[in-house]
Protein: BPTI/Kunitz inhibitor domain-containing protein
Organism: Ailuropoda melanoleuca
Amino acid sequence: AKQQYLSFLIPAAHLKHEAPRELSQALPAMCQLRPAKGPCRGLFYRYFSNSTSSECEHFTYGGCQGNANDFETTEICSRICK
């Protein structure tokens, strides 16, 4: 049987420094994930937080089954992970 996937893009603009305590504690773990292209063959230019260089860097996302360290802009990546 052919598998189908449904993805949701959730704006990160509501995640600010005054986030609830439990959310702010979860953010560093999210920002330490390695970039995940996923198995799909799309070509989406995204940014991830590189925990080694402490910079938001470019990667190519395939369009499905990535992880939370995936941002549409460097500004969003920096706001959440720095």
Helices lie at 21-31, 74-81.
